[in-house]
Amino acid sequence: MEMATFTLSSRTINSLTQKTLPLLTKNTKPHFPFSLCLTLRASKSTLRAVSMSYDKELDAAKNAASLAARLCQKVQKALLQADVQSKSDKSPVTVADYGSQAVVSVVLQKELGSASFSLVAEEDSGDLRNEEGKATLQRIMKLVNETLASDGTYGTAPLSEEDVLAAIDSGRSEGGPSGQHWVLDPIDGTKGFLRGDQYAIALGLLDEGKVVLGVLACPNLPLSSLASHNLQDDQDKVGCLFYAQVGSGTYMQSLDGSTPTKVHVTDLDNPEEASFFESFEAAHSLHDLSSLIAKKLGVKAPPVRIDSQAKYGALSRGDGAIYLRFPHKGYREKIWDHAAGYLVVAEAGGVVSDAAGNPLDFSKGRYLDLHEGIIVTNKKLMPALLKAVKESLNEKASSL
């Protein structure tokens, strides 16, 4: 005799737990197996991960990231020196960073409601509230309103300066292990953006501390593989949207809405044939350490250096086999730099870990606690990569 199986939503389970279990303690005999009682008592996070669908959230995230990309493309096309400020940490920030964050915040709240909205994001409006930031704020407000109106869905009434500031500041959440938290890097790879190179709008969702969906909008990434892309050929289309939902795989489509295709990391098992990605900026990763690791693996191809989480997207579709990131001592990785990319690669069959092979933990707030760095590859190459990383780190430490 076959047993029927069914899936309960988290809301149904919570309701059953709250309403039914108390009755069992009031001299009532249970009318269902004890095993089901135990199931109903299971942790909410486990039940949520197994039974919850994030289709609505994923649709909202794709819309938000795509619209933010439209704003960024407009700014990059006609970048003025006045559009670039310098934050207190001296990294460049443009009206596109702020505008992108505002657009994503507005779209998510309009589509999903704002009652329990939580966003962990890179920017805040502090610099824009000063007298010196007034002109920049005006440009941001204009860009945001034009972008929302261009979609025809969200541009009902224009946002005021205060609305835009509030949308930017909605990203001040600290995240954590409980509840749902959106995680956003409004422009990952600002320096690449300013050079006219690669950048990404990276948006993920945490549920009970786990990344459950990820979206990467990569306006300058070719739709064809980087390995076959001809940089001189203007006919090659650019603009990719990668997205993944936990348990559902990773898909790619063009930013202008082509039919999605399911993607998968390379199944390469010979390290000598592997190509690897690393950060374009030497300040973002230790290139000498990456070179040592590549040498130990026998990798022959030179590294592909590109900015942003576009690397995660490219790796998820098999453009390369390995991504290495080893920040300089004292640097703390932020969750928005990896959350979306992590799930895009993981759902495409890849593995993302720290340098010791530990899984990434996004439940600790705005920062990741890591051993040394981050490594990304497929399951076949990971053992050899971990060994090479360990040996290289030991050699580097002994030479100091």
Short descriptors:
metal-binding; 400 residues; magnesium; 7-stranded mixed beta sheet; alpha+beta; 36% helix; Inositol_monophosphatase_CS; Inositol_monophosphatase-like; EC 3.1.3.7; globular; 14 strands
Structural overview:
- Pfam families: Inositol_P (PF00459).
- Mg(2+) binds at residues 122, 185, 187-188, 337.
- It comes from Solanum verrucosum.
- InterPro entries: DPNP (IPR006239), Inositol_monoP_metal-BS (IPR020583), Inositol_monoP_superfamily (IPR051090), Inositol_monophosphatase-like (IPR000760), Inositol_monophosphatase_CS (IPR020550).
- The structure is a single chain.
- With 400 residues, this protein is an alpha+beta fold.
- The protein has helices spanning 10-20, 34-40, 44-51, 55-77, 95-112, 134-151, 161-169, 190-195, 287-297, 310-316, 339-346, 382-398; strands at residues 84-86, 92-94, 119-121, 180-188, 200-207, 210-222, 238-245, 250-254, 261-263, 276-278, 304-305, 322-325, 350-354, 374-378.
- It has a 7-stranded mixed sheet with strand order 3-4-5-6-7-8-9, with helices on both faces. It has a 5-stranded mixed sheet with strand order 11-10-12-14-13, with helices on both faces.
- Strand 5 (200-207) and strand 6 form a beta hairpin.
- Helix 5 (95-112) packs across helix 6 (134-151) and helix 10 (310-316) runs parallel beside helix 11.
- The longest helix has 23 residues, at 55-77.
- It is globular.
- The termini are far apart.
- The relative contact order is 0.11.
